[in-house]
Design goal:
Blueprint: E1 3-10, E2 18-26, E3 30-40, E4 43-47, E5 50-52, E6 54-56, E7 63-65, E8 84-85, E9 91-92, E10 94-96, H1 103-124, H2 176-179, H3 183-186
Antiparallel strand pairs: 1-2, 2-3, 3-4, 5-10, 6-7, 8-9
Length: 197
């Protein structure tokens, strides 16, 4: 695995522990967004993208964050102990969406991202600095991919011009009387025959 690109979005408020968001591209073809660069006691570290863990309200079934005391949907008081615990017994409030499964991979990602973060801090000091974090990702070989047959315009297809389409008359609801069948037709099947009489 090779990290081929890192994009950094620096946070404006430097007093906060969250220093930046970043995205990494793996092998030039797979992007992982929303990694966080957080200022720790021993310097900056990388936190993987995660989501808040939730539990369902027993009354209405709506999802609520584990720290919620009341349901966001119906206002029902929620049980206090709805938290998950990891194998060390610590309360788990977030779950990683993407993460390395061994320490070597985690260390490689962290070193690469922190190195790019330091470079981005230097670039941010330059006049006219613009972050590339929100730019779109494009396939460099997309220009060489042939267009599928079904998408190409065909010479045989007839193009309809807007002026050639006749407008439809306004919708007229049918009267209830026209929806009813005559009484003798409704008695073919005797089930429910007396309901409409």
């Amino acid at each position: 695995m090779e990290i081929t690109e890192v994009r950094i979005k620096l946070m404006d408020n430097s007093d906060d522990r969250l220093q930046a968001f970043c995205s990494i591209t793996v092998d030039g073809c797979f992007v992982i967004r929303d990694l966080k660069i957080i200022e720790g006691t021993n310097g900056p570290f990388v936190a993987m993208p995660s989501r808040k863990l939730t539990s369902h309200c027993p009354q209405c079934g709506a999802k609520n964050h584990l720290r919620s005391s009341y349901c966001n949907q119906c206002g029902n008081r929620l049980k206090e102990d709805r938290t998950f615990r990891d194998h060390e017994g610590r309360t788990k409030l977030y779950a990683d969406i993407a993460h390395p499964i061994n320490s070597e991979c985690r260390e490689m990602i962290q070193q690469f991202v922190i190195s790019e973060f330091q470079g981005e801090l230097e670039r941010a000091e330059q006049p006219g600095y613009v972050s590339r974090y929100d730019e779109g990702y494009e396939d460099p070989e997309a220009d060489h991919v042939p267009e599928p047959e079904s998408v190409r315009p065909s010479a045989e297809r007839t193009q309809i011009q807007p002026g050639e389409i006749e407008p439809r008359p306004p919708h007229q609801p049918r009267s209830r009387a026209s929806n009813r069948k005559p009484l003798e037709q409704r008695h073919d099947n005797q089930f429910g025959a007396g309901i409409f009489e």
